[in-house]
Structure formats: structure tokens, C-alpha cells
Amino acid sequence: MNKLLIIIICCISATQFVHAQEHTVLQPQLKLDIEVNGEKHQIIDGETITVNGNTIKVSSSDNMTFNYGALKFDYPKNFSFEYESDTGYQNWSLDGNNLVIMYFKFDAEVGLDDFINQMISQFGEENSKVTDKEIQLGDIALNGKRIDIHIVGANLTYDMYLLDAGDDATHFLSLQDTKNDDGSDSKEYIDTLEIMDKTIKIK
What we know:
Protein Transport Mog1p, Chain A, alpha+beta
């Protein structure tokens, strides 16, 4: 399990470095296919069409729904989605501009402190500060740890929470945020947690 944790932490470290340097790029516009009384139309997301004298506007939701493992919640649609698995391990990642949400599921017991210590060994103790962290999302009270990380001229926080899903697996929810220059939470972090707070459930 230690070897698997090291591999996971190395991937997280690479993600931290990329987020410290990336810039926002607008994505291509989404095309939507709609059918009205058997007649098919294709329009750009948010545009309007007129069918038989009726004006119809079609827009995709601003949010997507994550519904995997033991968790269900909404998140902004601009976040990319990634999934990876290995023997006894699954990881889902939702990657925004400043915020990365990660959900880990281990079939075996994995200690939170073990996970945190592996991360500190990657970033370096001189670059990391660990504190206890609590957060309330919906009806779920989460307890965990926060690592304040200072690398490549950027301030990052990595919050790791242990989830009680009522089974024999180990579940972690992590929130990685690239902070503003003054050290405050990014707007994306604040807005996304507001969405999660209204929608999150343990299934």
C-alpha cells in the first residue's frame, strides 16, 4: 500500500506544479441537438431558435453531477474529469482552474496520517505546514488535515478529509486550492464549495 500511496502522491505533486503555472483558456462552444415534433435542429449552447412561431432557448446547466463510489454532488461544468484505478484503489479527479477535487477509495484500511506524511515527503517539510481542518458540507461534518504548501512561488492548500461511508473501504475527499496572492481562498474554491454544500450526499 505504501508503494501505491507514493505513486498517487507523485501524480498529485505534478498536478500542483501545473496549476501553479497554467492560464485560463476558453473552451470551444458546445453544440446541442434538439428535436421538436420529429424535426431535428442543431444550435450553439445558449442560442435560440424559432420553431412554428415559438421561440425556444436551449442552454446546458452550469453544473455537472458527480455520482461515483459513495459520493454524489454537483460541480461546475468547466471542470475536467479523470478516473484511474489499480488493484484495491480508485481515484476520481475534477480539475478546475484553481481548484482540484479528488475522491479516493481504498479497499483496505489506509490511515489519514500515513497519506499526509507521504505528501509531506514529496513536497518537503520545509515547504509544508500541517494543521487540523474541519468543514461542514450539507449534512456531512468532515474532519481532516490541511497542508499549506509553498512551492515555485505559489501558495497552495491541500485539504484531506476522511469520509465515513458505512462500509469496509477507506474513503478520502480532498480539496486542492491555488490561493490568491494575498493567501485567501480562490473564488473558484468559494463558489464550488457553495455548490457542493447544497448538493452533496453520501449514498
